[in-house]
Structures are given as structure tokens and as C-alpha cells.
């Protein structure tokens, strides 16, 4: 049964081009194609434009010309567009499939410019290809040919001006993604004296970071003041002011990592243990919880537990933490 391209373009290559597969003159070697049951047959010849050019004077001659070998497989693409039993080619219902991998390739003779092609079922659902000359003598065989579908993202129409499938264009931004001025960062200062490691690192000359010699010198221009620990040597009221700038920091470890220490059996047991440890470390004072990565989930769960017990933390800081994904695949945002 012939594979026709009636009324679409000019011959089979006009139909393939209409569906997004364009071949230049050097690769239009398929003369005719047929299907018989599960087998495809084709008649291909090396295009005149390629024959006239001949091999390069200083280049190798081809054992099997790549343009001829490529044309031998074009029937596979054309066959992918057959939409009914009449052999007429229509819209790509099955889609285009192109050669992807070859196995067991053997060349039996060279110098051939015209081929008879037979494509039949191969091993493991692949295709097998036999190429012969006009007398039926073997030219080449492909034991297994793997095809891959050509991705289809829309009509394959070329730009009429440049001939390109893609072009640049100006697209107005929506209001939600328009540029906005960056949010001003909170200003911070350093408590200490010039020449100390903390000041030289965080407030080098020319940085504009204010340096305060003592707690009494701190003003409202800095929202955050970084103080050394222990604080500078101060006395009297200055020491009391310095103490007001400092916060005790406690690291609460996960249970189950010491030798002989059992891991909590459930997440609820882990949260209970961590809540007890946090309350013991914070005593009766206000506290801020900080958790990093997966530890952020635990910190948030502990904060919820403490809140339910009437001891909610002043804040919860999550560093590099993402909301956990529920069983339905939806991220659950922390409250």
C-alpha cells in the first residue's frame, strides 16, 4: 500500500515539512514508500545535488553516504503520519518518531547511490532495517533501530521573515512582577573598640557601620548592635546596660545520639522531649527558637507545643527551612 501525501505540499517531503520535519535538497532522497502488513518498503536515491558535488578532493569517500542512509529511514517518519487504512497521510495522530539508537550495523558493499529499503519488526519492539541495491544484493543491515517520538509543543510554523521557528518579542510585564525598589535593610552597629577582631571584621574603615565604644553610646540609628561575648570591661551602670544587650544562647540537641540513648519512637515523643529541654534552658524568661533545615520543622512543632501550654516563644526563626509536604502533595505553611 503506497504511503501518499495527496494534496499536501509537494510529495512526501512537503507533507513532512507541513508537520515540522523539514529536509534540505541534499537529504530529499526518498522516491516512494509502501507499507505491507508490519513491513515498510522504500525506494531512495542519492539526490543529484549531492552526486554533482562528489567527494572532497582531500576528504575520504563514504562507505555509505550519510544522506542516502538518512533518506532510507524517512519512510518511518512518513508512516507515522498515516491516519487510516487508505494509505493517505493526514495530521500526525501517532506523532513523528525519529531514529535514536542503532545496533548491529553492518555494511556489505560500498559506492551505492540507490537503495531498496525494507523495515520490519526487530528484537524487543525495535525495528530491523535491510538495504539492498537495485539488483537485490545486500548493501547494509541494521539489526535493531530504536525510535523516539519527536516532542510536539505546538504548530511548527516558521517565521515568514527570518525563516526561524523561534523569535524574540517584547512582552509587557504584569503588575505582579513589575520591578519594585529593594526593601531597605535594617542598619546594624558594633560594640567595641577599633583594632579588635570583631570591629575590624564587621566594621572595617569605609564600611559606614557605626562603632560604639560602650553601651551608653548606642543610639537609635542602629536597629541591631553586635556585641562581643564576653562584653567589654565595663563597670557600674555601663555593665548593666551591656547586660541588657546580651541574650543567653542554648543549643538543644536531639535525643538518641548518645551511646545507649534510645531515639524517640514518634515525632510527638521527640517534640515532647524538646519542649521539656527548651523550657528547662529558658527557665522563666522569654525565649526565641531557632531551627535550621529539618530542625526548623522541629522548632516550629515545639513552638506550637509551648503555645498550647501557655508558654509561647517570643519568635521562631527558621533558617533554610521549607514547609513539609503533606500526603496530598501540598506544602503546609507554618502558622
TrEMBL record:
<feature type="region of interest" description="N-terminal hotdog fold">
    <location>
        <position position="1"/>
    </location>
</feature>
<dbReference type="GO" id="GO:0006633">
    <property type="term" value="P:fatty acid biosynthetic process"/>
</dbReference>
<feature type="domain" description="PKS/mFAS DH">
    <location>
        <begin position="1"/>
        <end position="156"/>
    </location>
</feature>
<feature type="region of interest" description="C-terminal hotdog fold">
    <location>
        <begin position="4"/>
        <end position="156"/>
    </location>
</feature>
<dbReference type="Pfam" id="PF00975">
    <property type="entry name" value="Thioesterase"/>
</dbReference>
<keyword id="KW-0808">Transferase</keyword>
<keyword id="KW-0511">Multifunctional enzyme</keyword>
<dbReference type="InterPro" id="IPR049551">
    <property type="entry name" value="PKS_DH_C"/>
</dbReference>
<dbReference type="InterPro" id="IPR049900">
    <property type="entry name" value="PKS_mFAS_DH"/>
</dbReference>
<dbReference type="InterPro" id="IPR050091">
    <property type="entry name" value="PKS_NRPS_Biosynth_Enz"/>
</dbReference>
<dbReference type="InterPro" id="IPR020802">
    <property type="entry name" value="TesA-like"/>
</dbReference>
<dbReference type="InterPro" id="IPR029058">
    <property type="entry name" value="AB_hydrolase_fold"/>
</dbReference>
<dbReference type="InterPro" id="IPR001031">
    <property type="entry name" value="Thioesterase"/>
</dbReference>
<dbReference type="InterPro" id="IPR042104">
    <property type="entry name" value="PKS_dehydratase_sf"/>
</dbReference>
<protein>
    <submittedName>
        <fullName>Polyketide synthase type I</fullName>
    </submittedName>
</protein>
<dbReference type="Pfam" id="PF14765">
    <property type="entry name" value="PS-DH"/>
</dbReference>
<dbReference type="GO" id="GO:0004312">
    <property type="term" value="F:fatty acid synthase activity"/>
</dbReference>
